[in-house]
Amino acid sequence: MHQIAAEIPPQLFVENAPFLFEQKLPQRPGKPFTGSADQCKPLRISLSERFIGHEFSSRGARVQRQQTLRCTIVRRYANCAMIQIHALPAFNDNYIWLLQDLSSQQCAVVDPGDAKPVLGWLAEHPDYRLTDILITHHHNDHVGGVAELKQATQARVLGPAAETIPARDIALVDHDRLTVLGLEFVVHAVPGHTLGHIAFYHEDATTPLLFSGDTLFAAGCGRLFEGTPEQMHDSLERLAKLPDSTLIYCAHEYTLSNLRFAQAVEPDNQDIAQRLAEVTRWRSENRISLPSNLALEKRTNPFLRTRETSVKEKADERSGGQNTSQSAVVASLRAWKDKF
């Protein structure tokens, strides 16, 4: 039986995530725990609108908020330790995702286009060590901070083999597996935005995670800077086959503009209307709209809905002719969105 010793915080702070997940905690939160995974009990936390920004004890009772963390708590199977995922804003609308392992005091980042937000976080958390830097593609707003972070921390840099990535230690190709902070990720090749773009997927029975870079956005997809509509369609179809519960951590806060476009494509889609109203409120309160989840994307993202008659008809109308394939629908929608 696997033995562990971990310090688990007595409360979890959750904000701005419209989904449910389960987390296992030790029987006595807040105290050093030595035991097996079998001694952990499940905790279900509702992240509905009325609970956002409040603190929950391990018994599920709501108490007065003391601070706010933009994070998702996910389960590590082996030892009940916890990972927090933070959004570090960069530039105008980028997010650098930081994974924080509370038990080992190590962390990892995804697509650090700027070193300053990461170095700032590390300065505020001097007990933590940056161990890994994950890169989805070569654009500067995703790799601009890599060299400085590598020099400052000696973190391992992992990125796509088909692209030039600064200070890369490990070149990744489709289906590669890697372990980061005890979590196993599978590499998915998802060309379209760039030719060598990859995504990182962590399979979990309760909370699968996808770091999708600039391929799949909340309610949208990336521009076709290098790839073809056929490649983007195939990449999106591949990601759409992941479990509906998959949490999607994309790299930009584009959700509001994407939903406005989605509503133009499907003006009668009530799921889009509801999501647009919700995200409009969130952004007016300066709250982030991520992560999304795949089930929600299938209902509200036009680039995942190319089979829908209403989407194809609108694409045909915009292109002035019949789109004879789903990739042609993607091409029509993407050309429209580029000028929207």
According to CATH, the homologous superfamily is: Ribonuclease Z/Hydroxyacylglutathione hydrolase-like
Low-confidence stretches: 1-70, 76-80
CATH top level is Alpha Beta
- Based on secondary structure, the structural category is alpha+beta
Instruction: Quote the beta fraction.
Output: 25-35%
Shape: globular
CATH fold title:
Metallo-beta-lactamase, Chain A
By CATH, the architecture is named 4-Layer Sandwich
Taking Cα atoms only, what radius of gyration do you get, to the nearest Å?
20 Å
Largest sheet: 7 strands, mixed
Task: Describe this protein's structure.
Helix content is 27%, strand content 29%. The protein has helices at 115-124, 140-143, 146-153, 229-240, 255-265, 270-284, 294-300, 309-319, 326-338, and strands spanning 4-7, 11-13, 20-25, 32-35, 41-46, 55-57, 62-63, 73-75, 82-90, 94-101, 106-110, 129-134, 156-160, 170-172, 177-180, 183-189, 198-202, 209-213, 216-217, 220-221, 247-250, 292-293. The chain has 340 residues and is α+β, with helices and mostly antiparallel strands. It has 9 helices and 22 strands. Helix 8 packs across helix 9 (326-338). The longest helix is centred in the C-terminal third of the chain and has 15 residues, at 270-284. The chain is globular, with a radius of gyration of 20 Å. It has one domain: 4-Layer Sandwich (Metallo-beta-lactamase, Chain A).
